[in-house]
Structure prediction request, 94 residues.
Amino acid sequence: MHQLIAEKLKTEPLLLEKVKGNVLKELRRCPDNTKPYFVRWQAILNESLDATVEALTSESEQATALRQSSPFHGILTPEERLDIIRKFRWGQRA
Prediction:
């Protein structure tokens, strides 16, 4: 899903503002153990679109851990999410 989010952000960079708002909301309500992840997302989002795309698509252990506390909810439409789930399930059976 994060791969599709990265592609969508490249074509619609204004969506980053929604994600930045999501980070602020999460920082106000998340448990202390996840705050460092959202602080890191905040820094990445403020750095650049390229840094954001890298964090969304990297296979590094650090990026994978970071994506476990993702502020990208609401970026994909329900249809886009369902399409990914269907493709994933189909691929698992093949």
The helical segments are 2-11, 15-29, 35-47, 49-57, 61-66, 78-93. Residues 2-93 form one domain. The chain has six helices and no strands.
